[in-house]
Specification:
Blueprint lengths: L14 H6 L9 E2 L2 E2 L16 E6 L3 H13 L3 E8 L5 H11 L11 E3 L3 H6 L5 E4 L6 H10 L3 E4 L7 H16 L4 E3 L7 H11 L6 E10 L13 H7 L5 H4 L2 H4 L2 H10 L7 E7 L14 E7 L5 E8 L9 E5 L2 E4 L4 E4 L3 E3 L7 H14 L7 H20 L3 E2 H5 L33
Parallel strand pairs: 3-4, 3-6, 4-5, 6-7, 7-8, 9-12
Antiparallel strand pairs: 1-2, 9-13, 10-11, 10-17, 11-12, 13-14, 14-15, 15-16
Length: 439
């Protein structure tokens, strides 16, 4: 691949222009899952014996795993298209998927696409389902393109890195409902058998009224791919996307969102009204770590008085914990450990728990085939919004509101995407980086 420019020789469409137009999209006449006034194509439907063709966009480790999960989930599926920003990611991904399912992978070179506009070529193909496993920055635009093209979608988390991106995804998911297209979220705990049983019991009153929630995502560090002198600054940042807020949303969004989503779930998927927090870079002091933090601590407040105290950290050599602790008026629970204690008993989950990564695809394909496609758009957007609220509260040192973040006009990232230089953005300094987002 060339570092100077995309394969087309032109920068991709401006993200700001795309996001600015989200309010004008989806106003056409809706008839039987088809929007007829603005060029949308009919929704895809499938009988139980139809082979559903799958495209993967984002051929890294998570994307490769998602493709295998999709093939595990339904015997009448087939991977026929692969796409990634980087050409060198496609070959290893294809090899891994073929090793798992040699008879259900058919991706010749002409259906392997790369560069910034690769997703557009995917949408012109005859696939039925698109797995969106790219860097979070690109998710709102690619999700809209998939729904406009009439594709069902599995969409990894988070779904955006800023308020305009969240608004775009909410609008896209509204259109997906009108077109009877599935949008299944990569917030995988929603499909875990044990977690579902624990949360159902809590919501049924096993510990009384919820008073407070503690969410921990305290872990070690993740990968870093180094720096190659042949790479442009844009290529370097995208290959190490975890460490640049404009690409990942910071680790409160990219990783801690799993914990925040469970707090949201326990609050009937209603986003909190406000957040305060603190965080910083105590260990990530080198330039290689971009501009993200290594720890966040936040307090979220809901209208009913419930508070969630959330902690996330990516540091080596520290004590780790990723459980959810729920305090109720009549007891308490630990969600991931599957334990509920109340005045009468201590209950523990004892059943089988198949792979949640497979189950999310099982449910997606089942919903497509029975004509009732799943749409996880609201909660995946609200969980992303919650993560952005926490990040901005910590970055600014201010209390932020749900509405200020959702309605913010702050767009992270460059005006358009092309190989070359790109500003990584400053490291946020609480008390110096501005007041409430959108104010």
């Amino acid at each position: 691949m060339k570092n100077e420019k995309p394969a087309s020789g032109k920068p991709s469409t401006s993200r700001r222009k795309f996001l600015a137009g989200i309010g004008a999209v989806g106003t056409g006449l809706v008839t039987n899952g088809m929007v007829t006034a603005n060029g949308f194509v009919p929704a895809v439907h499938s009988r139980n014996d139809d082979v559903l063709k799958i495209a993967l966009i984002g051929c890294g480790g998570r994307g490769t795993g998602a493709a295998v999960n999709a093939l595990n989930a339904d015997p009448n599926t087939k991977v026929t298209v692969l796409a990634d920003i980087f050409q060198d990611r496609i070959g290893p991904c294809l090899e891994s998927i073929q090793k798992a399912y040699p008879d259900r992978v058919d991706v010749p070179q002409e259906r392997q696409f790369y560069d910034f506009d690769a997703y557009k070529q995917v949408m012109q193909s005859d696939v039925d389902v698109v797995l969106l496993c790219t860097t979070p920055q690109f998710r709102p635009v690619q999700l809209r393109a998939a729904i406009d093209a009439g594709k069902h979608v599995f969409c990894e988390k988070p779904v955006a890195v800023d308020g305009p991106g969240v608004r775009s995804v909410l609008e896209t998911c509204r259109i997906a409902k009108e077109k009877s297209l599935a949008v299944v979220s990569g917030l995988c705990w929603r499909y875990d058998v044990k977690v579902n049983e624990v949360i159902k019991r809590i919501k049924d009153g096993a510990i009384g009224d919820i008073i407070a929630i503690q969410e921990n995502y305290l872990t070690g560090t993740l990968w870093h791919r180094g720096k190659d002198p042949k790479w442009s600054e844009m290529e370097y940042q995208i290959r190490n996307w975890l460490y640049f807020t404009w690409l990942s949303g910071d680790h409160i969004a990219e990783q801690h969102i799993h914990s925040l989503d469970k707090a949201l779930w326990l609050n009937d998927d209603q986003a909190p009204i406000s957040c305060v927090g603190m965080g910083g870079r105590q260990v990530r002091t080198e330039e290689k770590w971009g501009n993200v933090y290594d720890h966040f601590a936040c307090t979220y407040s809901w209208e009913n008085g419930v508070k969630a105290f959330t902690f996330t950290r990516q540091m080596e050599g520290c004590s780790n914990d990723t459980d959810d602790y729920i305090l109720g008026s009549k007891g308490n629970a630990q969600v991931l450990r599957g334990i509920i204690e109340n005045e009468k008993e201590k209950w523990r989950f004892r059943g089988n728990a198949p792979s949640m990564y497979d189950l999310e695809h099982v449910e997606m394909f089942k919903s497509i085939r029975n004509g009732s496609p799943i749409n996880n758009g609201e909660y995946m957007s609200n969980s992303t919004l919650m993560a952005i609220m926490g990040r901005e509260a910590c970055y600014t040192g201010q209390e932020v509101s749900r509405d200020s973040v959702l309605n913010s006009e702050m767009v992270l990232g460059p005006e358009a995407f092309a190989w070359g230089d790109v500003d990584p953005g400053l490291i946020a300094m609480p008390g110096r980086s501005g007041k409430n987002v959108g104010s």
